[in-house]
Write a structure and sequence with these properties.
The protein has eight helices and eight strands. The chain has a four-stranded antiparallel sheet. Strands 5-6-4-7 form a four-stranded antiparallel sheet. A hairpin with a 5-residue loop joins strand 1 and strand 2. The longest helix is centred in the N-terminal third of the chain and has 18 residues. The protein is globular. The protein starts with 5 loop residues before the first helix and ends with a strand. About 35% of the residues are buried.
């Protein structure tokens, strides 16, 4: 069982307070479009697991049904727009490793915007592979404690096939093998857990413990990256 993550708690709380609905819907829409494109054009969530994750995330954020369908239609080529997935790697000021996932219809524009954030804020953008080895892909389920103890949740999660859990404030992050994510989700739902989020993430395998001032600068740096329209996710080794 993983320990309590101070900076994950702060980031989670801040994200909930600062979420901009318009920007969030844009990112969710892109995630849906990419899921259909990467799934061979399959626009049925029951036959495209990645799309199911994206649609579930959109619904959890109260994204209108028509917006979801528009994103699926766009992926089917009805809008003439094709999105490309791009991954950037580097270091935040202070040396914390960063991986940026973006979805864009103009790679040169997105690369320039990401590079600008690194250059103007004391970061160091690296080559592909420079930090990605410090992360591993995992399924992640987030659920509120709702009065349950972490130990009880851990036992239920482990019984459902999960690999690990982490306490983050009043929520618990449950980690699975990516291929087991759907199975664990269904098992937990069957145990009457209310799931807040479910997605595939990059989990750090080499966590960086840094001084508070460095951690604060790192979080500010991550926020600047997340504010870019094309950026979908930003992962760091900060704990």
């Amino acid at each position: 069982m993983s320990g309590h993550s101070k900076w994950a708690t702060i980031k989670r709380q801040k994200g909930a307070n600062d979420a901009k609905r318009g920007a969030l819907f844009t990112k969710l829409s892109k995630a849906i479009t990419i899921a259909v494109q990467q799934g061979g054009g399959v626009g049925d969530p029951s036959q495209n697991f990645r799309l199911r994750l994206a649609v579930d995330s959109a619904r959890a954020s109260n994204m209108p049904k028509e917006n979801i369908q528009r994103a699926i239609d766009r992926a089917a080529g009805k809008s003439g727009v094709t999105l490309e997935e791009v991954v950037y790697e580097g270091f935040a000021p202070g040396g914390v490793a960063i991986v940026v996932e973006a979805a864009t219809d103009n790679k040169n524009r997105t690369t320039g915007e990401v590079q600008n954030v690194f250059n103007k804020n004391g970061g160091n953008m690296g080559q592909p592979g420079s930090v990605s080895y410090m992360f591993v892909q995992k399924g992640q389920i987030i659920l509120p404690k709702n009065g349950k103890s972490v130990d009880d949740i851990f036992l239920d999660a482990a019984d459902s096939g999960a690999e690990d859990i982490e306490e983050v404030g009043e929520e618990v992050f449950i980690y699975t093998n990516p291929t087991d994510l759907g199975k664990v989700r269904d098992a937990l739902s069957g145990k009457s857990y209310q799931l807040s989020e479910m997605q595939i993430v990059r989990k750090p395998t080499m966590p960086a413990e840094v001084a508070d001032d460095v951690a604060e600068k790192t979080m500010e740096f991550i926020e600047k990256l997340e504010d870019l329209d094309d950026v979908q996710n930003v992962y760091s080794t900060l704990v």
